[in-house]
Amino acid sequence: MMTKMSKREYLIVLKKKYHQVKKKQKGQLLDDFCDFTGMHRKAALRLINGKLPAKWKHRKKRDRYYNQEVIDTLLILWRSVDEICAERFQPFIPKLLAKLIACGEIVVTPEVRTKLLKISLGTVKKVLQKTKHRSLIKIGGTTRPGSILKSQIAIRYEPWSEVDPGFLEMDTVAHCGETVAGEFVYSLNLVDISSGWNEQAAIWGKGEKATLEQFKKIEKRLPFKILGIDPDNGSEFINWHMHRYCKKQRYTFSRSRPYHKNDNAHIEQKNWTAIRQLIGYSRLEKKEQLEILQNLYANEWRLYLNFFQPTMKLKERIKNLKTGKSRKKYFEAKTPYERLLEHEKISKEQKDMLRCIYNQLNPITLRQKIQRKIGLLKKTLK
């Protein structure tokens, strides 16, 4: 491909020769010029017969609107929320930016601030396209069927229709490595259907009493009253201890269908994002590991998850009548904290308490403490 300067020089030589030769030779010169430059014959004739341009325009490369300073600041924000997906991250940028500025973690110019507040989802996706992928070992499930008590606990068949905070899905996650033999640590995981508020606790084994004990501890930490629970059919939930306690507290107690993981899709997804991505699949079989995990779940991790991790909620499924396929439409991503502040069933006192906690938090400091404790946990594996 010829440069613009080369084309100009060729044209100067051609113009002198073109008007001195006969018609047949003119056609040959014109064909050669078009072949070498890639120009259309009409465009080439206009240049040959017209005045030679004083200078040919060079297209100036457009400056990037989102310069490196904006991108660097965006990456700081993204890493402070554990590198979540762009769909969850982009709507959270304004509040996260204000929070980090208030905590003194970053200083930005008015220009960078303005650009970050108007950055689109598509641009965020382009910037964040290089993401990490963890390679983790998968193991089979460790759910053991509950007792004959199952006949007294209703099965939930329909999708959740409750809109008030307090209806929870529950599950346990085994930290057994590649074998379920012997004793090891489990994580008890609960998620509120309405707000997405997520809590965890560490248990040695998954005995009935131990599970109930940790459930009660989580209950005290929740910023709303429990209205109902919906676990799977594991024996750690389907037992007389849990049944009696729920009856005493007047909680709705239902269970999912056996071998239908999609019935508890909310908690199954949280098992991955809130536990497996944090802890991985290593075997935890020491009491020291249990203590570290209990401390992490009860303090930094729950605050980081619920105040600085936006989640997406399904709005509707739109079915294409021609193809029969459907696509999902989601509400704008929000943190569980934001959803609770917007909910009318949460009292003013509870909302003030949540705001007070939020004002004292720094997501970068929380993340550093979480990484420090995970580092301690990894040292115990050696």
Task: Please write out the topology.
Layout: H1 4-18, H2 23-37, H3 41-49, H4 68-80, H5 86-89, H6 93-102, H7 110-118, H8 121-127, E1 154-155, E2 167-175, E3 185-192, E4 198-204, H9 208-221, E5 228-230, H10 240-249, E6 252-255, H11 265-279, H12 287-308, E7 314-319, E8 326-330, H13 336-342, H14 348-359, H15 363-379
Parallel strand pairs: 1-6, 2-5, 5-6
Antiparallel strand pairs: 2-3, 3-4, 7-8
Helix pairs in contact: 1-2, 4-7, 12-15
Q: What's a quick, concise take on this entry?
A:
Helices cover 47% and strands 12% of the residues.
- The number of E-state strands comes to 8
Structural class: alpha/beta
Our count of helices gives 15
Q: Assign a percent range to the helix content.
A: 40-55%
N→C terminal distance? 61 Å
Order of helices and strands: HHHHHHHHEEEEHEHEHHEEHHH
**pLDDT below 50 for ≥5 consecutive residues: which ranges?**
133-140
CATH top-level class of the largest domain: Alpha Beta
What integer value in Å does the Rg equal? Answer: 31 Å
In what order do the strands lie side by side in the largest sheet? Answer: 1-6-5-2-3-4
CATH architecture of the largest domain: 2-Layer Sandwich
CATH fold-level label of the largest domain:
Nucleotidyltransferase, domain 5
Strand content: 5-15%
